[in-house]
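PROTEIN DESIGN WORKSHEET
SECTION A - STRUCTURE
LENGTH: 91
TOKENS:
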């Protein structure tokens, strides 16, 4: 799932190894605004892509936090897109 909002741009991927674990990808700035920087790791230096592993409960809280902070003027900037299920990553 891709999330685009005023809080940042994120991609959420479910890991294959642990069904309760999710990988959130985004820029350093976007991820560290929402999560602790010590949990963040570099995924792709050329693209400036960073990641963080979280459980489904924490992801639910993260999405709720993003949606609750949207005011009526920002709804046009908020987008959820489905990521192709053909791309799977072993984490």
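SECTION B - SEQUENCE
RESIDUE ASSIGNMENT:
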């Amino acid at each position: 799932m891709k999330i685009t909002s005023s809080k940042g741009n994120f991609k959420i991927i479910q890991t294959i190894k642990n069904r309760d674990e999710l990988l959130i990808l985004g820029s350093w700035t976007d991820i560290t605004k929402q999560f602790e920087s010590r949990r963040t790791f570099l995924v792709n230096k050329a693209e400036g892509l960073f990641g963080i592993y979280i459980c489904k409960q924490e992801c639910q809280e993260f999405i709720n936090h993003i949606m609750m902070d949207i005011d009526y003027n920002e709804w046009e900037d908020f987008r959820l897109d489905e990521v192709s299920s053909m791309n799977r990553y072993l984490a």
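SECTION C - NOTES
The helical segments are 28-34, 56-68.
The chain has two helices and six strands.
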